[in-house]
Amino acid sequence: MAKQKEIKFQDLQAAYDAEDAAKEQAAIREVTERAKKFHARLDAMGLKYRDLLELEVLAHSLGDMGHNILLGYERGEGWPSGT
Same structural domain for residues 72 and 82? Predict the structure, then answer.
């Protein structure tokens, strides 16, 4: 009868840890590539990421009505009458 090899918890844990680390590094590389592409688009528009964050806060403060007014203006509808 063949002798069974004893499985050590530490070896098993090390294998799982290595697999998790490899998955995490792959995810970091993927997200970093997306971030670099996004940064390049911002840069092409002359914006920094900080600028975008500030603009997002300001856009949120407009509310739905302000958002719709700006969309209408961008579509060529002009500003609302009486303003």
Answer: yes
Model pLDDT for residues 19-63, shown as the tens digit of each residue: 999 999 999 999 999 999 999 999 999 999 999 999 999 999 999
Type of residue numbered 36: K
Residue owning tokens 């590389």 = 29
Residue type, 18: A
Same domain, 55 and 75: yes
Nearest residue to 79 via CA among 68, 67, 69 = 69
Q: Which residues contact 2 (CB under 8 A, 6 or more apart)?
A: none
- Domain extent at residue 59: 48-83
d(CA 59, CA 70): 10
